[in-house]
Specification:
Blueprint (H helix, E strand, L loop, with lengths): L2 H18 L4 H10 L7 H9 L5 H64 L5 H9 L4 H7 L4 H28 L8 H12 L13 H12 L6 E7 L11 E8 L6 E7 L8 E6 L6 E7 L11 H17 L18 E7 L21 E5 L28 E6 L13 E9 L8 E8 L6 H15 L12 H14 L1 H20 L36 H5 L37
Parallel strand pairs: 1-7
Antiparallel strand pairs: 1-5, 2-3, 3-4, 4-5, 6-10, 8-9, 9-10
The protein binds a DNA duplex through strand 2.
GO molecular function, one term: DNA binding
Subcellular location: Nucleus
Organism: Flemingia macrophylla
Length: about 600
DNA sequence: CGCCTTTGACCTGCGC
DNA sequence: GCGCAGGTCAAAGGCG
């Protein structure tokens, strides 16, 4: 789309707006964003002005214009709804930010008070309460002072349980209510990170503490703590270069796979609890199966954020999906949502969507989400995610969740794929009371014919928010446009938060709305307009990356977890880039 | 010398 | 309780 033609399109829009009586400046800008139809040219305008009585062809054109206007009206209406939703989300975000700030201040204050209490040898009972609210970290030191070991263990467990309960509340509230603090399912992951590893990582078995024991119990109570993200990619290199630094700490020959499984841990920060497992698929050696566990507790290199975002978001989907729904918080997004095909259907046929990866099947205690970059989009048989969870646990909290990043490219060693992303969620219905499984299938399908609108969105956003970035002519350099626009978008925390929250709400409401009691639900949301095809783009272009990256980068923004967001891709595999994954040599023995 | 990989031993959870 | 398998540890050695 050229700028000139875009301008004429705006003129027509303005005409239409004057008809409908709408029109402040902000709305006009947003309209520009949503504009998806081909803009009217000067010829078109002359056609309109000259009237329909000149010739049949012009009459036809006028009809087409009428139709286009009607479509635009729908788009405008939808845009208005989204705008209202966005404003509400932004308000909520600000409120939550203030609440979070207050909470942090309060906790800091409490902690300093507690330290003072320690100095004055006051009782520890009050501190135990503080511990519980501090996710179980503080009690450890406090209880070391206790003489009675059994009592210590008991109280330790209690403290952790309480802390965990608090976490659950947070997690649950995250997807149920917009007005509660920390509505982010991702927070749950963050909590998991801190509790599973956190500052005490790596846990030494020789120094296993009572806290560790308690943590084990807690982890059994909360399987989501060990949520994993499994990535299947066709890759010739030994490991994926995800931008992080990894140290290999073990290797095992797993049953059913001649290829050894390598264990890596993140070495960017000594206390980082993130681990990954790398293994070749036994059935197809070209497929590299990488499983990530945990969240980084340190700033990530820029090159690592995409992968971390994806895994984090995917893990968040696992966690967030476990939350109960609040139908009241559901926005009116069941209709046209710019390219996101959203399916909710009965779970009676869920089994057909599972693929099994015996070579990398995780422990039943690990809910695992698999991002499959190896198979073709919907045309092929669905290769979704294998989700495992231990039925002995409170399985109602955990959603078998599937993501499928499919690619037509045989060498899917980067995030570039055809943009097909699907998320299948098999969810124990209604807290497992009725044993009714509901399959919710979320898919984001980039549609090749809908490339323009995304350009409009990105370009308009750039125009609005950043004048420093040159906007290339979209039709000439769409990849550059998108890359630059993505930069701008990712630089704006408000937009990120708002969009993240919106998407989370959309996804969350869709996947959890069955809590209202509908056993058979089929819901579709089409969202294609916002996910243009990028099949023509080079591999460094836009991707269907999952982006809670900004959630990682900015904890204050971590208001939503399960979201899928467009983000600058990173090559998953390149032989030892500068950011260097030391583990690239990890499969030497292979 | 520091960091990394290798590799056998050990620990733990789970199924029978 | 036992065996199996997954996961982790840590000493030894290699490499830059």
């Amino acid at each position: 789309m050229e700028f000139g033609s875009e301008r004429s399109g705006h003129e027509v829009k303005d005409e239409k707006r004057s008809e409908s009586g709408i029109g402040d400046e902000e709305d006009r800008r947003e309209e520009k964003i949503v504009m998806k139809g081909p803009p009217l040219t000067n010829v078109d305008r002359s056609t309109v002005e000259s009237g329909p009585n000149t010739c049949p062809t012009k009459k036809k054109e006028v009809d087409e214009l009428e139709n286009a206007k009607a479509e635009m009206g729908e788009v405008i209406e939808e845009n208005r709804r989204l705008k209202m939703c966005l404003n509400q989300i932004l308000n909520d975000y600000r409120t939550l930010q203030m609440q979070f700030h207050n909470i942090v201040e309060q906790q800091t204050k409490d902690f300093s008070d507690k330290v003072n209490n320690d100095e004055h040898q006051e009782t520890i009972i009050d501190e135990s309460e503080l511990v519980s609210l501090s996710l179980g970290r503080l009690p450890r030191n406090n209880e070391k002072n206790k003489a009675s070991k059994p009592l210590k263990e008991e109280e330790d467990k209690e403290g952790l349980s309480l802390a965990l309960d608090c976490k659950f509340e947070t997690s649950k509230s995250g997807s149920t209510t917009e007005h509660l603090p920390n509505p982010s399912p991702d927070n749950s992951v963050e909590v998991e990170k801190e509790e599973t590893g956190g500052e005490s990582w790596p846990p030494s078995k020789g120094h296993k503490t009572n806290r560790d024991t308690a943590e084990d119990e807690v982890s059994q109570q909360n399987p989501a703590k060990k949520a994993r993200v499994c990535l299947r990619v066709r890759c010739d290199t030994p490991t994926l270069n995800d931008g992080c630094q990894w140290r290999k700490y073990g290797q095992k020959i797993s049953k059913g796979n001649p290829c050894p499984r390598a264990y890596y841990r993140c070495t960017v920060a000594p206390s980082c609890p993130v681990r990954k497992q790398v293994q070749r698929c036994s059935q197809d050696m070209s497929i590299l199966i990488t499983t990530y566990e945990g969240n980084h507790n340190h700033p990530l290199p820029l090159s690592a954020t995409a992968m971390a975002s994806t895994t984090s978001a995917a893990a968040s989907m696992l966690v967030s999906g476990s939350s109960t729904s609040n139908p009241g918080s559901r926005p009116s997004t069941s209709a046209d949502l710019h390219g996101m095909n959203f399916f909710l259907s009965d779970g009676s046929k869920t089994k057909q969507y599972y693929i099994s990866h015996p070579a990398l099947s995780s422990s039943p205690s690990h809910p695992t989400i698999t991002l499959d970059l190896t198979s073709n989009p919907p045309s092929s048989s669905p290769s979704f995610v294998k989700f495992t969870s231990n039925s002995n646990y409170n399985s109602q909290r955990y959603l078998p969740t599937s993501l499928n990043f499919s690619s037509n490219e045989s060498n899917a060693t980067s995030w570039t794929n055809n943009g097909f992303l699907s998320c299948t969620t098999q969810q124990p219905y209604n807290n497992n009371r009725n044993n009714v499984n509901v399959l919710s299938n979320i898919s984001l399908v980039r549609q090749q014919q809908q490339q323009q609108p995304m350009e409009n969105i990105l370009t308009s956003y750039m125009q609005k928010n950043n004048n420093n970035i040159a906007i290339p002519p979209p039709q000439h350099s769409l990849p550059d446009t998108i890359a630059a626009a993505t930069k701008v978008i990712t630089a704006d925390p408000n937009f990120q938060s708002a969009l993240a929250a919106a998407l989370t709400t959309i996804i969350g409401s869709g996947s959890t709305s069955k809590g209202a009691g509908e056993n058979n639900m089929s819901q579709k949301m089409k969202w294609g307009e916002s996910f243009p095809s990028t099949s023509a783009l080079p591999s460094s272009s836009i991707v269907s990356g999952c982006a809670s990256s900004f959630l990682n980068k900015s904890p204050s923004n971590a208001q939503s977890g399960s979201l899928i967001f467009l983000q600058p891709p990173l090559p998953l595999s390149s032989p030892r880039s500068a950011s260097g994954s030391p583990g690239d040599n990890g499969d030497k023995k292979n």
